[in-house]
Amino acid sequence: MTKELQVRVLPHEAATQSLLTALVARELGIDARTVRYLRVLRRSIDARQRTIYVNLTLRVYINEEPSDDAFVRTEYGDVSKAPQAIVVGEGPGGLFAALRLIELGVRPVILERGKNVADRRRDVADISRSHKVDGESNYCFGEGGAGAYSDGKLYTRSKKRGSVEKILNVFCQHGASTDILADAHPHIGTDKLPQVIAAMRDTILRCGGAVHHQTKMTRLLLEGDEVKGVEAVDLANGGKRLFHGPVILATGHSARDVYRYLDGADIELEAKGLAIGVRLEHPSHLIDQIQYHNAAGRGEYLPAAEYSFVTQVDGRGVYSFCMCPGGFVIPAATGPHQLVVNGMSPSNRGSKWSNSGMVVEVRPEDVSGDSPLRMMTLQERIEEECWRQGGCRQTAPAQRMVDFVEGRQSHDLPRSSYSPGLVISKLHEWLPRMVATRLRKGFQVFGARSKGFLTNEAVLIAAETRTSSPVRVVRLQDTLQHVRLRGLFPCGEGAGYAGGIVSAAIDGERCAEKCAEMILGEGRRF
Q: Which whole number is the average pLDDT over 437-454?
């Protein structure tokens, strides 16, 4: 027999199996010896008051062992002889599009400009060692996309466009911990996500799909207003190759050469709002003290604390973004003369620092001109200035938090997780005024809400510019095809329709379904 039960317990009770079993038995009025297994279905931490509680939804197995899997498996069949579709990009949008195509009986052919997830690791590490950025293999480009080596957070507010649970179950099927099915803010960790991505690729290959690494799309193959495939260049060996089939375009938010190609080919684009700011890094112990209302910090049973802030300043949102408890700040440029930072956390969230993007909403009407690429141009301008301020290397310009708010230069900087190094800079002077002014006011609001948050123990590291795509590749709402070009499915974060791993994966599945409908016949709807 099984029963489901919601309990509210102290952290040490949630972490101690014998205590939790005894509590559950009391709640159900049964003998604790009859409880064979407890499965956590949902888990969240309530840290609003001084006494911290853990909220749990449990499935209790009474006088029986669990016979069901902890996750729902998806069956993937052989599509080696099926009609094919081209998937450009192997981030979450592209990977989940490919897996869904296999489910529906279509053979995916993935073209990824970067290297496989294992070989990519060396190029990522070399950015910190030599300050050189490989324009095709870095934190943004390569198998797994921007999330593979920059965190693996799976939290999303996207509920209406697809099944979050399906996405999480597919991750579990390929090796992710089943904890992600229960946690309120699920997180795989940058140390574990690469193996999960490699397992997904192996599924695609085993089922008859194809994956071409270091293969960069150069143009679409067009016949009138229909896309028939793509031309791509082999970056490892040279030479060009044509790939035929409808195209799911899932390039990620940093493929600026793709945006320039589309704009130059008069393929409909529009400028999209984004957010720009800095990475704010505190000692993780300080964030634990603030969030858990305890001078001792998180103690033995609680994870590294998270936070979320949002306010309005002068008509624009100012908010925390991609918060990484117990994490690191990383260099995320994709080419020369750029300096961009991002954040990540390993699965144990065990570093001495916690960081978050602190960003200001910027809308297309805030930037002069009418080019659909004007938001991208703004990103590039800030990133180049950041690179100059950092000494024309990947050393990042930085400023202590209170110094930034009060408009004075820092005399020194605290220790940081950012491995290429920091240099003192007057961020309050050279960041765009519309960003710097709002950030300063926003920090004052956040400091008033959370005592101790506004401190010179924290450091601002510039610049956070890649929060989302600066461009939207315009598509039809019903078919998800490009507004004019039949057979082109703009997909995921790079096309302007997602914001993070899970929402990009959901959009990938939706595009795959519409693509399969087109290939297999309009009578086939999924």
A: 98
Bond prior to 82 in cis (omega within 30° of 0): no
- SS3 state at 98: helix
Amino acid symbol at 385:
E
Tell me the per-residue pLDDT of 365-409, one tens digit each, with 9 for 90 and over. 999 999 999 999 999 999 999 999 999 999 999 999 999 999 999
Strands (E), 201-340: 210-213, 215-223, 226-234, 240-244, 247-249, 269-271, 274-283, 310-313, 316-324, 328-331
Evaluate whether 355 touches 281 at the Cβ level (below 8 Å).
yes
Distance CA 437, CA 431 (A): 9
**How far is Cα of residue 39 from the mean position of the Cα atoms in its chain?**
28
| Consecutive H or E run containing 26 | helix 17-28
Length of the chain in residues, anyone? Answer: 526
What stretch of H or E contains 522? none
Report helix, strand and coil shares of the chain as percent, to nearest 5.
30, 25, 40
Cα angle 395, 348, 199; round to 5: 90
Residue 213 in 3-state DSSP?
strand
Residue pLDDT, tens place only, 330-343:
999 999 999 999 99
Contact 378, 453 (CB under 8 A): no
| Largest separation between any pair of C-alpha atoms in the chain | 73
Q: Give this prediction's pTM.
A: 0.95
Cβ atoms within 10 Å of 310's Cβ, excluding its own: 12
Tell me the pLDDT tens digit for each residue of 263-294: 999 999 999 999 999 999 999 999 999 999 99
Residue 27 is encoded by which pair of tokens?
């709640």
Per-residue DSSP letter, 315: T
